[in-house]
Write a structure and sequence with these properties.
There is one protein chain. This protein is an alpha+beta fold. Helices cover 18% and strands 29% of the residues. The protein has 2 domains: 7-97 and 176-251, no CATH class; 102-171, no CATH class. The chain has helices at residues 7-20, 101-106, 158-168, 177-180, 223-233; strands at 34-45, 50-60, 66-74, 81-83, 89-91, 93-99, 108-110, 113-114, 120-123, 126-129, 190-194, 202-207, 210-215. A hairpin with a 5-residue loop joins strand 4 and strand 5. The longest helix is centred in the N-terminal third of the chain and has 14 residues, at 7-20.
C-alpha cells in the first residue's frame, strides 16, 4: 500500500504548524486557561490525504464555559475559521458547547461551584443525573476535596463537574462523527480512534527576534512517529506504544491554573 505522503511529512506538519501559524494550536492538555477532562485522537487517511482530530472536553477558568475543543491537523483541511488581525490566519480550532450558560447558572451555588441541591444537568439537550453528595464525584475525581480549581471543601467545582460528566457519560461529552469532520473531507476514511496515549507538552513562545520551542516536539518520542506510520500504512496495528499513557487529566495539574 502506497501513499503520496510520508511519515516525515506528517511529523514535519505537527512539529512546525504552530511556528508557521500562531492560531494553529498543538494538542494542549495543560492550557492554563482550561481545566482538562477527557481527550481523544481520531486518525483519517487514504492514499493522498491524512488528518488527525484531537478533542478535549474542558472548562474555561475565565469564562466558566464547559465545552469540547477540537483541533484539526492534516494536508486536506477545509472550512477553517479565520483569526488574527483582519482574519489573516486560518485557525485549526472549533468549539462545541456541552452545557449552555443558563443551564450552568441554574445549578451554581457560588462562583464556579455546583449546588449539591442540583440533581441533574442538561448536556447536549439531555438531562443527566449528577451527585448530590460531594463524595459522589469521587469515582472520577478521587481527590475531590483538593481538586484543581477548587474554591471550597464542601461543594464540587465546574472543573469537577466536567470531569465527572466526561467519564460517567463519555459519549455525550465526546465529538460526534459529524463534529470531527467539520474541517476534513466527508469521504476521508477513518482509520482508528486512540483514547490513551503518551503525550508531552509542546509549543512556542515569543523570545524577542525568534520563536523559542518549549517542550518536546511530536517527532521526538514514540507516540507521533507511530501514529504517522498508522496514517501512511492505514494499519492500526502499527500503534503499539511502550510508553505509559499520560493524557488523563490527572497528569496535567497545571491545566486551568491561571
Amino acid at each position: 500500500m502506497t501513499t503520496n505522503f510520508t511519515t516525515g511529512d506528517v511529523l514535519e506538519f505537527l512539529d512546525r504548524c504552530q511556528l508557521e501559524n500562531p492560531y494553529f494550536s498543538f494538542m494542549d492538555l495543560e492550557n492554563y486557561y482550561f481545566h482538562t477532562a477527557n481527550s481523544r485522537l481520531t486518525l483519517y487517511a487514504d492514499d493522498a490525504r491524512w488528518a488527525i482530530v484531537f478533542e478535549k472536553s474542558c472548562q474555561g477558568n475565565r469564562d466558566g464555559r464547559i465545552s469540547l475543543e477540537l483541533n484539526f491537523y492534516g494536508n486536506c483541511l477545509q472550512d477553517l475559521d479565520c483569526a488574527g488581525a483582519e482574519g489573516r490566519y486560518p485557525s485549526n480550532t472549533k468549539w462545541i458547547p456541552l452545557i449552555d450558560d443558563d443551564e450552568l447558572e441554574d445549578i451554581t451555588s457560588d462562583f464556579e461551584e455546583i449546588s449539591l441541591a442540583a440533581n441533574s444537568v442538561i448536556v447536549r439537550d439531555q438531562a443527566l443525573a449528577i451527585p448530590t453528595r460531594l463524595d459522589g464525584y469521587a469515582a472520577w475525581v478521587p481527590d475531590i476535596r483538593n481538586s484543581n480549581g477548587g474554591f471550597s471543601f464542601n461543594r464540587p467545582t465546574y472543573a469537577d463537574l466536567i470531569r465527572f460528566l466526561a467519564y460517567e457519560y463519555p459519549e455525550l461529552c465526546r465529538a460526534t462523527d459529524a463534529e470531527k469532520r467539520l474541517c476534513i473531507p466527508a469521504d476521508l476514511p477513518e482509520i482508528m480512534v486512540v483514547d490513551e496515549w503518551h503525550h508531552r507538552s509542546y509549543g512556542y513562545q515569543d523570545n524577542g527576534p525568534a520563536m523559542e520551542v518549549v517542550g518536546d516536539a511530536p517527532s521526538s518520542y514514540e507516540t507521533f512517529p507511530m501514529l504517522a506510520d498508522v496514517l501512511v500504512t492505514r494499519d492500526p496495528t502499527r500503534f503499539h506504544p511502550t510508553l505509559p499513557p499520560t493524557n488523563h487529566w490527572s497528569n496535567w495539574p497545571e491545566a486551568g491554573g491561571l
